[in-house]
TrEMBL record:
Residues 24-58 are annotated as: Disordered. This is Phosphonate transport system substrate-binding protein. Keywords: Signal. Gene3D superfamilies: Periplasmic binding protein-like II. It comes from Gracilibacillus halotolerans. Residues 1-19 form the signal peptide. Residues 24-34 have a biased composition (Acidic residues). SUPFAM superfamilies: Periplasmic binding protein-like II (SSF53850). It holds the Pfam family Phosphonate-bd. The keyword Signal applies. The keyword Signal applies.
Length: 360
């Protein structure tokens, strides 16, 4: 009996020792697995970081189609949005620098020189500088409630409203203000009468720089088609640095006529300083052919620009435009989204530029 009890005790001790050994081994194995897993995770993150290319700075230029300070303030969030988006696309950007050019040409020249990496510029500016700038995206915008060649239609159906449909083109308008001469021209148009060159030449005009599609090029085409003349044939022309300045001069009767993009009155409705509303005080006296939308172009001569970076910039801006914060940023130019572009999209713009050159 004693031998039997002794045998049972020995067997029990042996079993316990084996079990403890198994648990210790299993615990050790689990710990080893956890350490390996953590190590693999850290290695994976390090490898992912290592695969991102580092760029100290990306510079972006905007044209002054709105007041420069307004553009700078509105686009400030773009810096972080672009840095975050580019990080997911394989680029660690140290800093995004945003500037507003003194005029349209300044941005085109900076892209051509390679001192600026990205430019948000109109098609006309891109075409003038396409030896050093490459278009990668075209902006899409909300269409408008009016899209007619007849200026009277714009006046009969004021105010112009936004449409739910996206558009890749827009009109330029020749707008008469509240001055005596401006009202005289508007009355003639609203009575269904044709303007003559003497009519418009008797007015004072505000125009933008020669590379501005809505502020110069397409109004020049309109004048050529209507009268066989161009802006340089006008006797009273005032260069303007922004559409905001032109509207201020129009409201103060300092000029009679200005040229601008079709929804500019909607953008400047609150800042209008005339006696009535901007819709009461202004009328359309001319409508240009449709203009292809603004571009996002990159520098061909930037030492950091290559095909991979261009593709990442395309994708980044498309993605940013689909976020609520991104929509707020690009709304400063009335952009609502972007689609990939190619140089041939702007062939009509090239024809427009050639016409302007021949007219000058």
């Amino acid at each position: 009996m004693k031998k039997l009890l002794l045998l049972l005790v020995v067997s029990l001790l042996a079993f316990l020792l084996v079990a403890c050994g198994d648990n210790t081994e299993e615990s050790s194995t689990n710990e080893d697995k956890e350490e390996v897993s953590a190590s693999e995770t850290e290695t994976s993150e390090e490898e992912e970081e290592a695969t991102n290319k580092s760029i100290d700075e990306l510079s972006i230029g905007f044209v002054p189609s709105r007041e420069p300070e307004e553009i700078i303030t509105a686009t400030e969030p773009l810096k972080d949005l672009l840095i975050e988006e580019m990080a997911t696309l394989g680029y660690d950007i140290g800093e995004v620098d945003i500037t507003v050019g003194t005029n349209y040409e300044a941005v085109g020249e900076a892209l051509s020189a390679g001192t600026m990496d990205i430019g948000l510029i109109p098609g006309g500016t891109y075409v003038l500088y396409d030896d050093g700038a490459e278009v990668v995206l075209t902006a899409t915008r909300a269409g408008l409630s009016i899209d007619s060649d007849n200026p009277k239609d714009w006046n009969d159906n004021k105010p112009t409203e936004a449409s739910d449909e996206q558009a890749i083109g827009y009109r330029a308008l020749i707008i008469a203000g509240p001055s005596e001469k401006g009202q005289e021209l508007a009355e003639k148009v609203n009575n269904g009468e044709e303007l003559t060159f003497d009519d418009i030449n008797s007015a004072s005009w505000a125009v933008m720089s020669t590379s501005s599609p809505a502020g110069y090029i397409y109004p020049a085409i309109w004048m050529d088609e209507k009268f066989g003349k161009t802006i340089t044939d006008l006797e009273n022309v005032v260069p303007s640095d922004s559409y905001g300045s032109s509207f201020a001069r129009l409201a103060a009767d300092q000029i009679d006529v200005m040229v601008t993009y079709a929804d500019a009155r909607r953008d400047n409705e609150e800042s209008w300083s005339g006696e009535g509303t901007i819709w009461d005080d202004t009328n359309v006296i001319g409508v240009t052919p449709s203009i292809y939308n603004d571009t996002i172009s990159v520098s061909k001569n930037s030492d950091k620009m290559d095909d991979d970076l261009k593709s990442a910039i395309q994708e980044a801006f498309i993605n940013i435009a689909q976020t609520e914060e991104g929509k707020e940023v690009i709304a400063i130019y009335n952009h609502e989204g972007y689609q990939e572009a190619q140089a041939t999209d702007y062939d009509d713009e090239r024809k427009a530029q050639e016409l302007v050159k021949s007219l000058n």
